[in-house]
Design brief:
Number of helices: 6
Strand content: over 45%
Distance between the termini: 120 Å
Shape: elongated
CATH architecture of the largest domain: Beta Complex
Number of domains: 3
Number of strands: 22
CATH class of the largest domain: Mainly Beta
Structural class: alpha+beta
CATH topology of the largest domain: RNA Polymerase Alpha Subunit, Chain A, domain 2
Order of helices and strands: HEEEHEEHEEEEEHEEEEEEEHEHEEEE
Oligomer: single chain
Helix content: 10-25%
Radius of gyration: 34 Å
Amino acid sequence: MKNKRFHIIFFSTFFAILLWASIIMTYDYQSFESVPLVLENMKPTRALAQPVPERVNIKVRGTGWQLITLSFSPDKKYTLDISGVSNRYSFLTNQDVMERFAAPQGIRVVEVQPETVTVVLDEKITKKVRLLPATTLDFREGYDITGDMKLVPDSVAITGARSRIDRIEEWPTAATQLSQLRSAVNIQVAIPDSPQIGITAFPHSASLQFDVQLTAEKIFKGIAVTLNDVPENRAVVLLPPKIDVTIRGGVDQVAKIDQLNISAYVDYRTILLDTTGAVQPIIVYPKEVKVIGISPPKVQYVIRK
């Protein structure tokens, strides 16, 4: 008996709530919708020279049922027809709203923000620029990258407004993070467009390649420091005349390097510009490794006539 009474009370309450909800959903309400801003019918020879807002905020009014329908609509957008724009035009967003925003029947638009959207166009051009890897690398302890990082292809064609493209000399890949590396890497990375400034890139991906090896260090003692461009009427003595150079790199690369692959020099002009009495030698070494230490880090000099 008690269970039967409980069920009656529960269903009575449930239907009462449904009836109440169905009634209040027929009342009018206001809500805000953030919808994508879409530019339509741009001339094929023109491109965006300045960014436009990605979205506009629209205050709408309608019944509860209508607003719910709008909220779940997958195709809602605010469109601007820019077929008549050649260079610059400012659109008043609160004009022609029902043509630009396809709302369900019965929905009324109260306000659109921002109130104006300025579209600036320029000549569309394509330019090939250098591709840069936007990567963050983390290596397992004792490992490191060896040699250069390589992208295939190493360039990308970008298309957009001349006023923007002319200033761009390189283009980044999509940000990529790689962790706990301990072996060679060969992966595909995305090459993104930049819709905010109206620039597209092609191709849309590249191969990122580099080698990772267990690292080793090696010290080369007694590397002679040579002098460049010393005038005939001058003699320069370096103290000390030789230095020790420590390199680090992959085990295989370090094993291939001997004393003949490492050299050091000082330009006479560097000495003339120095005010401290000591200069740091320039080290020449194979690009597959890194110089991590020079001893001593600087050499003193004596100039004689």
